[in-house]
Design goal:
With 488 residues, this protein is of the alpha/beta class. Helices cover 39% and strands 22% of the residues. It has a 7-stranded mixed beta sheet with strand order 15-17-18-13-12-19-20, sandwiched between helices. A 6-stranded mixed beta sheet has the order 9-8-7-10-11-21, sandwiched between helices. Helix 2 packs parallel to helix 8, helix 3 runs antiparallel to helix 5 and helix 5 packs parallel to helix 6. It is globular, with a radius of gyration of 23 Å. The protein starts with 6 loop residues before the first helix and ends with a strand. 56% of the residues are buried. It binds nicotinamide-adenine-dinucleotide. The site of nicotinamide-adenine-dinucleotide has 29 residues, from helix 8 and helix 9.
Amino acid sequence: MNAPLPAHAVRTPAAHWIGGRFVSARGGATLPVVDPSDGAPFAAIGRGDADDVASAIAAARAAYDGAWGRTAPADKGRRLAALSRAIGERAEEFAWLEARDCGKPLKQARADVAACARYFEFYGGACDKLHGETIPYTPGYGVLAWREPHGVTGHIIPWNYPLQIFGRSVGGALAAGNACVVKPAEDACLSILRLAELASEVGFPAGTVNVVTGLGAEAGIALARGEIDHLSFTGSAATGTIVAQAAAVRHVPVTLELGGKGPQLVFDDADLDAALPAIVNAIVQNAGQTCSAGSRLLVQRSRYDETLERVGRAFAALRVGPAFADLDCGPLIRASQRDRVAGFLDEAVAAGYRVVARGTIAADAPAGGYYVVPTLVADVPADARIACDEVFGPVLAAMAFDDEADAVRLANATPYGLVAGVWTRDGARQFRMARAIRAGQVFVNNYGAGGGVELPFGGVGRSGHGREKGLEALLGFTQLKTVVFRHG
Ligand code: NAD
């Protein structure tokens, strides 16, 4: 399909956004930007190093100590709201850019733009409502607890939802009064560079939002080691360990939003008509490249065959193709990710697990694109790699359980604990499951992969720690200062 080339895919210079302008990488190096739908390069980004990161941190510090720090909370809120509106006005531009850069079907990219705008709307309204406390203490004393920004916050962002994760992480940090330095993933920078530029256009002081592009092992690690006051990392568990160790040298607090292996529990009394679309969407959305994907299907034995048959039928109807064809799934982000997912599937087939159904790749999908068909694999043992590790592709691993205790055992059988879904009409069982499942979010008779800006989000165990989204995130982007007055 001949798609209009989004203006900013071409216009965005291969440069960082620092101090309110585009600045080339000091070393002059660039990295190609590849379109996952056809594997062809179509733009370039700057390859940042520690010097570039230091200069972005200095720009953020100057904004924090200067114009942004002196901006009243209500005015900060107006800027966030203005950015939200500006994103909404350019929704199609952002959607096409994100679709091209990440290989997302347009409908997914449009949803991401709407979520990004919503984060700035939500956090814009929160800027002047972040109250401290008074604390009763000894007679003759008055105690205040002020919520203060950390100062300069670092944000390391993955490639799967650049717009959304920028919105939730940077939106929350700005609302709490911080100035930000963002390191997007090397595979998905374009929408974030444009967002930072747009923030300046709607009146954020120069240096409030800075973006340094480049590789994780160069620019990313430099940010984690840099003179920042807080680090919000979203990405894989392995990289989370590296950045948390790096930040610990300067005792910088870190929020880790890591991976997941979300279970969907279907009990014998479940409303399958309601559950089915949610089960399919939770793993097909963004071609399964979602931390909160529902990637494990646990079904009570009495309804196992029926459920697999119906989910299988839905999988067989799924179509994969280039982003602009707007089918059920786009390509994966890069060749290595496609090969990794294919490796999981080859291993499952070799082990003899049952492949119930596969989708199809559109006949006219470009040969160079990174396509993987959605695949439903059944009768998977709980300790199989495909049942325990994050595949990060459109692969659903199914297994049967006997009773509630068995369901909980299987649900909690991975080191992750991010999001879970429970499908049952029994109210008491809903409550018991929500209590027993180890996860940061549990959805009952619905599933929200990535949804709900109001809903605190984060993990336990290998899924990380700290919460983003909702008002709860603001606590993480602030620190409490206790001030004790003796008045006699
Ligand atoms: P990744 O860890 O490879 O990369 C994430 C970011 O870290 C990128 O910006 C990358 O450049 C940077 N990075 C890589 N190596 C680094 C290093 N040594 N030092 C500093 N920074 C480094 O993850 P990914 O492959 O981009 O993203 C997929 C992962 O992200 C999955 O595990 C997914 O579950 C997770 N994720 C989690 C959430 C959440 O909110 N919990 C949301 C989206 C994605």
